[in-house]
Automatic annotation (TrEMBL):
It is an enzyme of class 2 (transferase). It is found in: Cytoplasm. GO terms for molecular function: ATP binding; dCMP kinase activity. InterPro entries: Cytidylate_kin, Cytidylate_kinase_dom, P-loop_NTPase. Keywords: ATP-binding, Cytoplasm, Kinase, Nucleotide-binding, Transferase. It comes from the Bacteria. Its EC number is 2.7.4.25. Belongs to the cytidylate kinase family. Type 1 subfamily. It catalyses: dCMP + ATP = dCDP + ADP; CMP + ATP = CDP + ADP. The keyword Chloroplast does not apply. SUPFAM superfamilies: P-loop containing nucleoside triphosphate hydrolases (SSF52540). This is Cytidylate kinase. HAMAP family: Cytidyl_kinase_type1.
Amino acid sequence: MSDTKHRIIIAVDGFSSCGKSTFAKAIAARLGYIFIDTGAMYRAVTLYALEHGAIRSGIVDEEAVVKLLDRISITFRFNPERGASDIYVNGDLVEGKIRTIEVSNCVSRVSAIPEVRRKLVAMQQEMGRRRGVVMDGRDIGTVVFPDAELKLFMTADTAVRACRRYKELTGKGMSVTMEEVERNIRERDKADMSRAVSPLRQADDAIVLDNSHMSVDEQMAWFMNEFQLKMKN
Ligand SMILES: Nc1ncnc2c1ncn2[C@@H]1O[C@H](COP(=O)(O)OP(=O)(O)OP(=O)(O)O)[C@@H](O)[C@H]1O
Ligand SMILES: Nc1ccn([C@@H]2O[C@H](COP(=O)(O)O)[C@@H](O)[C@H]2O)c(=O)n1
């Protein structure tokens, strides 16, 4: 599909649970690019902190998290069944453990720690060095790849986002309420936008996509138009 000589970086940022990963993965499959879910990396560090006593009763001990960082090695391995890479910590597959409400409730405090961001941003920049990547997160177009050729900023109504995430979690058999899910989304957006280091914000040159009333296929039709325009210029 895409000319390999002109592989670009596509940054997909935006609010929690608005469909960034779903869309970034679909774009990567369509273009033959690599998809990187940077939220999974912050979640993996959070899970490790929870499992190693650096988060107790919901309280994040920042110093303890920083001390753990050297013991955390994050890798990705492509899983053909999912059509995306699974995340591993120190060789252990953690993909199925990082999306619980417990991790979601702590991840924004872990991701606000400067040392955590420094480590993960450096990894992300290395992963995108050869270009041809679609990377989703909160600071991809502003900090990780400020020169990304195409930047999307995704949003959707909070109630729509909560409903989608609730369906997803309960569909996987997790026990959560709609109120809990919506509260988590609101709190994470607020924390991610107000942290001191690399807060979530729309890059000046990002294109906004509100997908509240769009299917993924409609999003793709919109995107391909933007992509073709970009590649012509
Ligand atoms: N256009 C859409 N219409 C309906 N449901 C969608 C759409 N896009 C994504 N979803 C669903 O919404 C849920 C959240 O999507 P996804 O995990 O991609 O969001 P995200 O922005 O990456 O979330 P987070 O930042 O919290 O990880 C998933 O269950 C996904 O299947
Ligand atoms: N580039 C990023 C990506 C994520 N975060 C933080 O991780 C949390 C979880 O991300 P999801 O995409 O899986 O929801 C998110 O709420 C942020 O706190 C980040 O800071 N930067």
